[in-house]
Amino acid sequence: MSGTHNLRELARQIAKDVTAVDDFIVSNKLPYPSSTADTPLLFPVDPSHGDVYKARIDAIQALDSLRGLLLSPPERAMLQMQYMETAALQALRRFDVFKAVPIDGHASYSQIAEQCSIPEDRLRRFLRYAMACGFFDERDGLVSHSASSAVFLRIPLWYDMLGMVTELAFPAMPNVVNAMQKFPGSSEPNETGLNVAFGMDKTAFEWFAEDEARSVLFANAMKATMSAPGYNAEFIVKGHDWARYSDGLIVDVGGSNGHVSVQLAKQFANLKFVVQDFPSAFKDAAESVPKDLRVRVEFMAHNFFETQPIRGASVYLLRWILHDWSDPYCVKILRALVPALRNGSRILIADNTMPPRGSLPNHEEKLRSFADLMMMAFHNSKERSPEQFWALFQEADPRFKLVEFRQPEGSSLGFMEVLFENESEEP
Ligand SMILES: C[S@@+](CC[C@H](N)C(=O)[O-])C[C@H]1O[C@@H](n2cnc3c(N)ncnc32)[C@H](O)[C@@H]1O
């Protein structure tokens, strides 16, 4: 995003935008944000608030630009060459420091060190760095949670998300370059940074599935995204006209522990769902489905590279599936659906989408690009533009017709609806 490069002008814009946001929160008596552990989990201004939401996003972008201008190039470069934030978070999670600090109180360094069996000197140094990054706080020699560290206790699934990032993605990332040298030009899912980091030759999903702790960590991290801004359940509920299928059947292909189907089942009382995945992904998941929904949300073991066994469903939903695979594998996944499709069957892709560079505010650009590099490290796959998604369908079968691509305001996921047209068959 380009914009002004004048310090004073940026400061004025920030003041104007922030005033609009502040006025809105105060006049509507919305919960006021703070940097303490009890701050509201969601910022009180969301995409439904139109211009006020835009003012918030513009202010974040302008703050980024202003900060950049106030630092000299060497200072900027030094700060951006940092990789310690994730390392500190890994240590603090591995030793369970997050849980040793009470969410509504404080603990001394020596208490935490003893409870977590970590030398106090190391604890202090990791915490000091984490505090400089906004995690945890210290007053009078006592450690408390900040808004950013408390989130891992307030939303327990986020602790698994942190585990997935620090224990799986973090070691994989520096090994991407090693994998590129070991397997030049590879787009195979078992020749990745993750493979080199952990010295194994399975795909990420096969490797997760063979270890219960890893498998649960990954499935919970996926579930955690439902409460992440940009990915929350509301977007999947509103991102598609589900009501039009009345009592139709939705196949949630690669649906993990069913968290997406459950959200949809809560909103659309007549729809039925079959969640397909490896059995390890939905181990014990059926019991976590609310009792009243169980008749409408079922689980089925199915490998999506094999022919789809459920014929003629209203929609085959692929949420966060294609981004895990390089192009030839995506084409195989789509072709495996074709024998099950009737004239008029729909496929809905809900996936991270990459818009043209420069069209997103920088903090959003960073999140999308982060996900893209994580896909590279885990699977030799990538995040795609809408055009790249559609190209996969065109290659898979000429009978696919693009209905629409939708990107709801504030959503990191785009929704591509594709129709299967088979003229030789009645709808
Ligand atoms: C990134 S997760 C997305 C999960 C879920 N759809 C969501 O939106 O949170 C990808 C899912 O694909 C599943 N998966 C991977 N390979 C598969 C395969 N060959 N057959 C079926 N499921 C598979 C994984 O177990 C995982 O649950």
TrEMBL record:
Domain O-methyltransferase C-terminal span(s) in chain numbering: 194-396
One record GO biological process: methylation
Transmembrane segments: none
GO MF annotation: an example: O-methyltransferase activity
UniProt cross-references to InterPro entries, sorted A to Z: COMT-like, COMT_C, SAM-dependent_MTases_sf, WH-like_DNA-bd_sf, WH_DNA-bd_sf
Taxonomic superkingdom: Eukaryota
Pfam family, one: Methyltransf_2
Keyword line: Methyltransferase, S-adenosyl-L-methionine, Transferase
Entries under PANTHER family matching the protein: O-METHYLTRANSFERASE ASQN-RELATED, PUTATIVE (AFU_ORTHOLOGUE AFUA_4G14580)-RELATED
Protein name: S-adenosyl-L-methionine-dependent methyltransferase
Organism of derivation: Rhizodiscina lignyota
Organism lineage: Eukaryota, Fungi, Dikarya, Ascomycota, Pezizomycotina
